[in-house]
Amino acid sequence: MNQKPVLDLDKIRARLESAQGPQYWKSLEELAETKEFQAFLDDELADRTPNWLDADHRRNFLKLAAASLAFAGITACTKQPKEVIVPYVRQPEEFVPGIPLYYATAM
Amino acid sequence: MAQLFHRSANSISKISIAGAVIALGGLIAFAYTMDRGHYITDVAVVKEQPVPFSHKHHVSDDGIDCRYCHTSVEVSSSAGLPATEICMSCHSQIWSNAEILEPVRSSYRTGESLEWTRIHDLPDFVYFNHSIHINKGVGCATCHGRVDQMPLMYKENTLYMNWCVNCHRNPEKYVRPRDQVFNMAYEAPANQEELGRKLVQENHIQSLTDCYTCHR
Q1: What ipTM does the predicted assembly reach?
Q2: Does A101 touch chain B (CB under 8 A)?
Q3: Phi, psi (5° rounding) for residue B194?
Q4: CA distance B107 to B213
Q5: Hey, which end of chain A has fewer CB within 10 Å, N or C?
């Protein structure tokens, strides 16, 4: 909320006059219940906690977290995937599969 | 005061308790059977290969030694699969026109490797070295079974950790004299315990059961 909304003070006064009991408000904008102020409240920290105020979303998040934990073990329930062995066509001399071959690259 | 539950509630509660116990037992039995069964372990399951290679024919009928093809089994972690060249050393002379061997010839012609399906596939988090086992007197057949009687290759044992540890804890029950390692038909003598203990001592066989022996 960059710009201060225009407040209709006469309207607010009229409303407060007819009001009964304690009426709490922290700013004139809140008292006026302008659209901009409501949007500001809903949007607070919007960029950092998206949908955090949405109860549905929070529950979904917890559900997903619980499910991931519960199903973590299932990843073990799998068959080993097929693996291929690809031998040489012409095996180089001096090279033994499984043993690193060291040689000097500079003479 | 009126009865809260119908008389049948007695039976229903008993049946549900018994049923729950049986269902739990059944679930455990099912999981165990799946885990040890052919479907998961691939024991005795033949897989598709580019060429239907018969160990039975090459080992039993022709009498070719394991090391003719698995050249590095005595010196390396990997036993080594024969290069196409090794196949062709015989098959350029015999069965040189057999249609079944066309993939081998085509590999030799084009320089493109044959792609075999791995039968004995240890998980990647396990370190295994063929040479140390061979050199300490663990026979090929001890782990791979009677390969000389397998027309198509399959896995004889699960290669599960409990199977490995079984021998690592009591090597004297399974080791054989070192000159018998490549003998497919070797059978443990009646005095295996005694012979085993002697071999363990002679060949300095250690019972390695530390986790990091295999999980490095």
Answers
A1: 0.77
A2: no
A3: -65, -50
A4: 38
A5: C
